[in-house]
């Protein structure tokens, strides 16, 4: 069994349609009653949107029902699916903790409640029956004030047992007017020793070179090879990894055809830029990580050897993977150390190309 690492998955967008529908039926019937039946809800929840801004509005639907009391319900089902259906050995969950706190509290009170949210997510993610190594990435948000975003950075530094890095989310077209502010926050985070990634170069409106020097990984970043390939040598020199989420770009209208990703992969491989393949919002897309792999292969976007390289990249660039090797290396050593197990891998079946 192959074991994978997932570096870019949003907590809000990770809830698959059926789980969210059942939750609405049991606890928020007013939301369920907006749809004739499950099929109508699934179509609404997973259909492509005309823009990234429209697509991001779906996050508010899930955020409105994710709080300190309900998060264990959603996370248990997330972890179960990730283990049983996706063969994940490692998972980084990203989200904005402020948006999981009660809206009727003051800003100061909501900031104070964020640590409780982080602890709830961290504890709910540790399941003996579904052993996946997990960590959290806290997202600053383009719609939140400076004080809240700085508090998110501070919280990430204060809780390293649960948090492995920070991000900036909320639509990369909104960063421009506050660029000095976000540069300052990223510089502050790096001075605190935090790992960093960020949603930039996802859309044509989100090309913000000012943030690139502060990022260890780049959330999406597809517009670098598509529109600004001159930046690729510097990205390779900095050893920055692109977190590519194929289905996202079709759901948001950023790309019209998956074949457009071939240029992204070809130029990155030629320039020596690492790519990790991710899902982004597996629930909103109703897909899982192995599907993303298969889709890229069947559309001849990448080869099997390139896929293997991307899978290795995910473990190498993971912020909290505790080993200096991926699971396949451990399993191979176990097979080599045990003659009985090694015999099981010796097969006389013909090979097929």
Automatic annotation (TrEMBL):
Keyword Secreted: no
Enzyme Commission number: 3.5.4.4
GO cellular component terms attached to this protein's record: cytosol
Domain Adenosine deaminase span(s) in chain numbering: 5-320
Gene3D superfamilies: Metal-dependent hydrolases (3.20.20.140)
UniProt keywords, alphabetically: Hydrolase, Metal-binding, Zinc
Entries under InterPro entries matching the protein: A_deaminase_dom, Ado/ade_deaminase, Metal_Hydrolase
Annotated GO MF terms: adenosine deaminase activity; metal ion binding
Origin superkingdom: Bacteria
CDD domains given in the database record: ADA_AMPD
One GO term of the biological process aspect: adenosine catabolic process
SUPFAM superfamilies reported for this sequence: Metallo-dependent hydrolases
Reported cofactor(s): Zn(2+)
Family: Belongs to the metallo-dependent hydrolases superfamily. Adenosine and AMP deaminases family.
Family annotation (PANTHER family): ADENOSINE DEAMINASE
Name recorded for this polypeptide: adenosine deaminase
